[in-house]
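User: I'm new to structure prediction. If I give you an amino acid sequence, what do you actually give back? Let's try with this one:
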Amino acid sequence: MKKNWHVLLVSTLALFLVSGLFLNAEAPSKTVTKLMAKAEKALKKSKVEKALEYYNKVLVEAPEYGPAYYGIARVQASQKLFAEALTNVEKASKLDAENAQTKELLINVLYQMGKDAAGKNMVKKSNEMFEKLAAVPGVDSLKPKMYLEALYSLGNGYGMLKNPAKSIDYFKKVLAIPGIETSDKKLAFQLLYKVGLNYYQLQNAKESCSYFEKMITFPDAETENANLFVTAHYLAGLNANLAKDLTKSSDYLRKFLAFPTASAQLLPLANFLMGTNMMT
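Assistant: Good question. You get back a string of structure tokens that encode the predicted 3D arrangement of the chain. For your 280 residues, that looks like this:
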């Protein structure tokens, strides 16, 4: 996607429009076959508008012919007409839901629309596109990077919309991706932090504390994420206090106060909580 996948349209589209593309489709009529061949020829000559004309003639002859919708969507995507492309690739997908090439185009279009909306701070629109992307069957294996980005964007998006529960759901899906803690340690560590904060917003101190504890025990956290590692001790202590686990709270707060890099802004409250723990 980031390498302008759509610029390959003219040279590759014909490959995807052969009879084997839509395996579940009925054999096309001679008229449809001729029109599709003309569309292919037009594309090879970079006559995109002419190709669209032939695809539309196909749909007059055979309104349920998936390859024509797919062809139109590919052309529109190459022109960055993503909303129009989405309409047509969704039609193609409904006609052959298991076709891998159609799924890939659908994912690509949804990804681009989601990124474009996010760039314009249209959070609800971005979430809509990324939720559709995440729901495409097999997306995690077809486009794993786009799938991960979509889940992460959804977690951030729902956080911006003040919906911490849904934010948690999507961040947890990222954390559930096999190998994420080794393939992207920094991201995994940050997500533990974000999930912990979201649980704090939901006033679920016990769950919040558990995620800050996971940060503390995360491999190489002290050296690779030093600032958050220290802060995690404070947050674990705070949430343990709220969960009435005062022994645990004091243990984490004591460790936090011992760090030379502990935030000066947090020191007064940390000391206060230590005092209340001992008095209770």
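You can read the tokens as a compact description of the fold. Here is one thing that stands out. The chain is about 75% helix and 0% strand.
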